[in-house]
Design a protein that fits this description.
Blueprint (H helix, E strand, L loop, with lengths): L1 H14 L9 H9 L3 H10 L8 H14 L3 H14 L5 H13 L3 H15 L8 H13 L5 H11 L4 H13 L3 H14 L4 H12 L3 H14 L4 H13 L3 H12 L9 H10 L3 H14 L4 H13 L3 H12 L10 H13 L3 H14 L5 H12 L3 H14 L7 H17 L4 H21 L4 H13 L10 H11 L9 H20 L7 H18 L4 H10 L3
Helix pairs in contact: 1-17, 2-3, 3-4, 4-5, 4-6, 5-6, 6-7, 6-8, 8-9, 10-11, 11-12, 12-13, 13-14, 14-15, 15-16, 16-17, 16-18, 17-18, 18-19, 18-20, 19-20, 20-21, 21-22, 22-23, 23-24, 24-25, 24-26, 25-26, 26-27, 27-28, 28-29, 29-30
Length: 557
């Protein structure tokens, strides 16, 4: 744990003063080619002044990003800067030609102007350059100008194994929703260039929704080939995350976050993954560091609440919940889990009445999560609001079509009804209604699990609620049935739970018979029965001084 925390803290130190490693601008190009221009822009701008950066190339891709954003003035500026940095890097001439195709409403004149740039770009040995011909094909295609196929042919003729050619073919097929054929083209690119990072990424994106295992395998292959690639590291971490492989995702993100070309915006995801991986201390440390720079980070406010709850820091968890759920969510949304967690925090602090408010909000937000009703019922029960506890559990049972009212549901609902009966001693009518309802629940338990003593025991307890002074002996036959079931296994007298059930039954039956000693006709038989039950009780609980004294009293009768 200490070494892991050291790693997290080292990431904090690195976060504010990252310096890119050699050729790290290439990571930006890889992001662009993989169809992630905004991430590409961040990296290309960050590394523009690095000594190893080929500025003409970086400016070209920045121009391409600006063109895609329809900021044509900025695109023109970048293409020109690229030419100023290296007049021989002809891709920036292609960029200018693309702008020409897009700029002039006179299509004929636009094509003429563009062709001048393209002709200049293809001078000399560049005429048979597959990459330049492909870039011109893209210029025609992206501006909706007829003629891109001619340059595609020239690119293919120049190099039949050029991977970017197959990548672009795949992209065109994706735009037509011909995903299977597109993946075939991406595989062609990988075949001719096993290091073609963008082909792996695009292939995995298509396949993830169809076959996530295959998509992840493709990214794992990529990481073997390009272990230092930021995009390869990030894509694999994201794929694990989307496939709910949180432990692997956290490990992959841990590697990626150490890459100088990671994004600050990815650190909250890493904090979340550390949480999902049950690495709560590390998650909280990272989350708190992020908050020190970004105090209104919605996701991180949530993670701080979650982490503190899991770590048992209930006061801190409550404060985090108040701050988080008091935020303006903006484009984010609060989830049912958020309110459930706040409810759990309050319940841990034994503030059950406040907890039910949060559980009610959770269920209102997502009424498909019927398990919330079960938690809500239990919390009403703990708050001694038995009426609502019963109604809520019945609602849960009615909604639980999967388990079709499991026997445990009847058992738990019966216990709530039993407690409601105990609490209603001031109203005989209400007391009896609840205890009879409890009995009906426990009768289902008996019917479904006839060899389980607990159904009989709770039937006896429910009956005893309606006969608080044991005058009628309503629970007598039920405790006798409990003993009959318990006696089926001699080992029950040795187990703690079943031993307690024996003692309870013996105590009640002994006391019931004790009350009968006032009847002269039943006196002798009642004394004998009382002694029998209470002595059996003492065999299991020899330190019960009350029963010892009671037995001595019987000797004076």
């Amino acid at each position: 744990m200490k070494s892991s925390l050291k790693l997290v803290f080292s990431l904090f130190l690195a976060a504010g003063s990252l310096t890119a490693f050699a050729d790290s601008y290439v990571d930006g190009i890889e992001y662009f080619k993989a169809g992630q221009p905004e991430r590409a822009r961040i990296l290309l701008e960050r590394t523009l002044d690095d000594a190893e950066t080929k500025k003409a190339e970086s400016y070209y891709y920045l121009g391409e990003i600006a063109f895609g954003n329809k900021d044509y003035a900025l695109a023109a500026e970048y293409y020109q800067k690229g030419l100023d940095a290296d007049p021989l890097y002809a891709y920036n001439l292609v960029g200018k030609g693309k702008l020409a195709l897009n700029a002039n409403p006179d299509k004929e004149q636009a094509e003429k102007d563009a062709k001048d740039y393209f002709k200049e770009a293809l001078k000399g040995k560049n005429k048979k350059d597959a990459g330049l011909n492909l870039a011109i094909a893209k210029a025609y295609y992206e501006t909706g100008t007829p003629g891109y196929e001619d340059y595609m042919k020239k690119a293919y003729k120049a190099n039949k194994k050029y991977p970017d050619y197959f990548i672009f073919e795949g992209d065109v097929l994706v735009s037509k929703q011909q995903y299977g054929d597109a993946c075939g083209r991406y595989e062609n690119a990988i075949y001719f260039d096993p290091n073609c990072i963008e082909a792996y990424v695009k292939y995995s994106h298509i396949y993830f929704d169809i076959n996530p295992t295959l998509a992840i395998q493709k990214l794992e292959e990529l990481l073997q080939i390009a272990p230092n690639s930021a995009i390869a590291q990030r894509e694999l971490a994201e794929a694990y995350y989307k496939n709910s492989q949180y432990t692997k995702a956290a490990e992959a993100y841990e590697t990626y976050i150490q890459n100088p070309n990671h994004f600050q915006t990815d650190r909250p995801r890493f904090a979340a993954l550390l949480f999902y991986g049950k690495r709560y201390d590390e998650s909280l440390a990272l989350a708190q560091d992020i908050l020190s720079h970004d105090p209104q980070n919605f996701v991180i406010r949530r993670i701080v609440m979650y982490d503190n709850y899991e770590l048992g820091n209930m006061e801190a968890a409550e404060q985090a919940a108040i701050e988080f759920l008091g935020m303006d969510p903006g484009n984010n949304v609060f989830t049912a889990r958020d309110y459930i967690t706040y409810g759990d925090i309050l319940a841990k602090m034994k503030r059950y009445t406040e907890a039910v408010v949060q559980y009610e909000k959770a269920y209102e937000l997502d009424n498909t999560r019927i398990e919330i009703l079960k938690v809500l019922s239990d919390t009403y029960d703990r708050a001694k609001d038995y009426g609502k506890a019963i109604v809520t559990y019945e609602k849960y049972m009615a909604a639980d079509t999967v388990n079709n009212q499991d026997v445990m549901d009847y058992y738990l609902l019966g216990q709530t009804c039993y407690r409601a009966g105990l609490a209603a001693q001031d109203s005989i009518e209400l007391r009896d209604a609840y205890s009879l309802k409890a009995d009906s629940m426990f009768q289902v338990v008996v019917k479904r699990s006839p060899t389980d003593y607990r159904g009989y025991l709770w039937c006896a307890r429910a009956a005893a609620v309606r006969d608080p002074e044991t005058k009628e002996g309503l629970a007598k036959p039920l405790y006798e049935e409990t003993l009959t079931v318990l006696d089926q296994d001699p080992a029950n007298k040795e187990k703690a739970a079943t031993k307690r059930a024996y003692i309870e039954a013996y105590k009640y039956l002994g006391y019931y018979n004790y009350l009968q000693t006032t009847d002269p006709v039943k006196k002798n038989e009642a004394i004998a029965a009382t002694k029998d039950y209470w002595n059996k009780m003492l065999e299991l609980n020899p330190n019960d001084t009350d029963i010892m004294e009671a037995l001595k009293t019987l000797d004076t009768f």
